[in-house]
Amino acid sequence: MLPFGKDKAASKTAKEWQAWNEECTRLASESIDIETSRKDAEKEEKNAAWMAKQAGRQALSVLGVKVHQFPESELPRPDEALRMLQSAISRAEQARENRTSFNLNISDANEALDDLQTALRGRDEAAANAQALAERLAETTQRLEALKGAPPKAGKSALSALDNELTKSQGEAARIRSALDARRDPDGGAEALALAEVEQAQQQVDDLEAAAALGDVGEEETQAANARLERARSKLADAKAAAVDAAERQSAASRGLTRQLERLEERIVELENVRASVAREVYREELEAVEIELMSLIDNAQVRGLVENINALRGSLNQAINHLNGNAPRTVPVAPLKLRVDIDYLFAHPEAKALNSTGIKL
Fold first, then answer.
1. Which residues have CB under 8 Å from 126's CB, separation 6+?
2. Percent of the chain scoring above 90 in pLDDT
3. Contact 281, 149 (CB under 8 A)
4. CB 50 within 8 A of CB 88
5. Peptide bond into 345 cis (omega under 30)
6. How many helices (DSSP H) and strands (DSSP E) are in the chain?
7. How far apart are CA 191 and CA 171, in angstroms?
8. Most buried pick, 74, 173, 196, 280, via CB within 10 A?
9. CA-based torsion, 215, 220, 224, 230: positive or negative
10. Which long-range contacts link 308-317 to residues 24+ away (Cβ below 8 Å)?
């Protein structure tokens, strides 16, 4: 569960939404896995049923039935073939005990019986597995739909808390990335300076040794230069060792920072998903409210009353005009007022489907 800020009410709501979102994701993933397994089980069920059918045909062949001479629909089903074979074996064994004749190869029949029983067990197990997976899928789907239909209460406070957490998390991720970038460009200044000192000391030694060979300088000066060279070399070795140690520490820090960044990026993705779920409910509720308000402004008792009054007045006006026209045929000089409002389209209004289809007529 992700940590949230100090606003306990908003934090509680945000945590509820996170748990709800995670459970929806888990059930959706579980449904996909079950559906995949169910399809595989259905294939196994069909294959097992085919194998049972073939074993049944073999059993019938052992009993002397010319299976190729009959359409599949007229042949006994595998379960019936099993009963027929068991009965025939029983009669044949009884006849053998009574030393009477029988027309059945008992060894072949027992082998066919074993194959058929094995095939039927496989068929029944495959069918039971497919049925169990279908029931499990239906149950998981039902739980998912019920969960989606009952999200936690959403509010602007929860949305604000999530926004604050996202801002903090994104800022922390940026800080870690900056630290990682800094470690990709290690500072090798100390080693470079030590190397420059060694090169300078080596040059002095070379120059003094050349001068000593010509007899221009004494041994003391060359010894002092060599001593400086040894000190410079020792300093360079220390700098290299320090650089190796620093590189190892840099590598360890980079690995630790990378793990922190990965966890933080996962957290940000989860926060964004939770925020989107909360925002969907918050804005849907707000949209429903304003759509209802809009419809109430268009279609209400006052507007309907005005239309009725206008049409009543038009009726009286038509009567007066017709009276003045004497014996002329009666007409409707001023037609009744009709208002039609086409709607394209409402989304969250409780009656959106009907209003989008018919509009409003007054």
1. 41, 44, 45, 47, 48, 49
2. 32
3. no
4. no
5. yes
6. 8, 2
7. 35
8. 173
9. positive
10. 310/337, 311/336, 311/337
Question: Model confidence at 53, in pLDDT bands (50, 70, 90)?
Answer: very high
Helix (H, G, I), strand (E, B) or coil at 38: helix
Question: Can you say whether the dihedral through the CA atoms of 198, 203, 204, 209 is positive or negative?
Answer: positive
Q: What is the mean pLDDT of residues 128-149?
A: 94
- The string of pLDDT tens digits covering residues 238-274 is 666 666 666 677 777 788 888 888 988 988 888 888 8
> To which residue do tokens 């359409």 refer?
71
Number of residues in the chain: 362
What values do phi and psi take at 9, rounded to 5? Answer: -65, -45
Beta bridge pairs of residue 361: 340
For tokens 């926060």, name the residue: 271
Query: Scanning the structure block, which residue is given the tokens 């929806």?
Result: 24
The single residue listed with the structure tokens 């779920």 is: 277
Q: Which residue has the tokens 């604050």?
A: 164
Residue the block writes with tokens 């073999």: 58
Q: For 330, which DSSP code? A: P
Contact 354/344 with Cβ under 8 angstroms? no
Of residues 329 and 297, which shows the higher confidence score?
297
The answer on pLDDT for 6 being more than 50 is no
Structure tokens, 183: 């470690």
Going by C-beta distance under 8 Å and a sequence separation of 6 or more, which residues neighbour residue 355? Answer: 295, 343, 346, 349
State pLDDT tens for residues 334-359: 888 998 989 888 898 999 899 999 98
Beta bridge partners of 341: 360
Mean pLDDT of 42-55: 94
Scored b (16 or more CB within 10 A) or e, 219-258 reads eeebeebbebbeebeebbeebeeebeeeeeebeeeeeebe
Question: What digits encode the pLDDT tens for the residues 61-97?
Answer: 888 888 888 888 888 999 999 999 999 988 888 888 8
Contacts of 141 (CB under 8 A, 6+ apart): 31
